[in-house]
Amino acid sequence: MTGQKQDMGSPQDDRFRRLVQDHSPAIGNYLRRRLHPLTLGDLDDLVEETLLVVWRRLDDVPVDAELPWMIGVARNILRNARRSQYRRTNFEATLSSPPDDPSAEELVTADTSVREALVALTQDDREVLMLNAWDGLDTHALGVALSITTNAAAVRLTRAQARFRERFAALEVH
Description:
Order of helices and strands: HHHHHHHH
CATH architecture of the largest domain: Orthogonal Bundle
Distance between the termini: 79 Å
């Protein structure tokens, strides 16, 4: 040795690296061929999730059947992803389509003064105002949604409302 420190991985790390190197292309191809109704954008996530399971269950991977075992894991992950996609699609189908009449949000933002006053606010102020006014969240619910205390939510809402009123009043003067 020439004084360089050699990185010695554990046997577990070495085995996992070898499994990834030897079998991840085959796993990716397996998943790609069966991807529908998912998209190519989901492929990397599915391969990654498969490899995470392999890493967690490395001791369960049979030495004489590594690839088939890994394909079985990929198959289960793909089935779970499809079920999630199916549930998501079914849920979206239950959502009512927008009515022909404009929504309250559309009516409010149709007023150019209101829209300009909202645009003049920071993203945080707009978010807290919209969660309160349009989604009906009170200060307790705002605190939960924003991961802050109820008191902090009340302060943020009060300050955002005051800044909105200032912006709106300034626009009405002009």
